[in-house]
Amino acid sequence: ATFAICVAVTMRTRTKMSLASQQYVRMQADVEGLRNTNQSLRLEIEQLRTDPRTIEVAARSRLNMVRANEIVIPVE
């Protein structure tokens, strides 16, 4: 009976360890993805602070801004 209990406990522990290991691997991949996203956002922030062309593109696409000498003709 003691042997059966030991085997059952060992099997349960191995199953939990395997699941925890799989979760750890998934979380590592998530963290790496978030690091990449953060790096991209840092680069975009830096460009928006310093690059006039990037600022203009963002103003046009995100804020629908135009230059003072441009004429906007709405198309439906």
Describe the structure.
- 80% of the residues lie in helices and 0% in strands.
- The chain has 76 residues and is mostly helical.
- The chain has one domain (2-63).
- It starts with a helix and ends in a 13-residue tail after the last helix.
- The mean pLDDT is 94.
Write the layout of secondary structure elements.
Layout lengths: L1 H49 L1 H12 L13
Note the main attributes of this structure:
76 residues, mainly alpha, rod-shaped
Distance between the termini: 80 Å
Mean pLDDT: 94
Compute the number of helices: 2
SS content category: mainly alpha
Number of domains: 1
Q: What is the count of β-strands?
A: 0
Helicity, as a percent range = over 70%
Unreliably modeled segments:
none
- Largest sheet, strands/sense/barrel: none
How would you spell out the order of helices and strands? HH
Q: Outline, from the CA principal axes?
A: rod-shaped
Estimate the strand proportion: under 5%
- Rg for CA atoms: 28 Å
In short:
The chain has 76 residues and is mainly α. 80% of the residues lie in helices and 0% in strands.
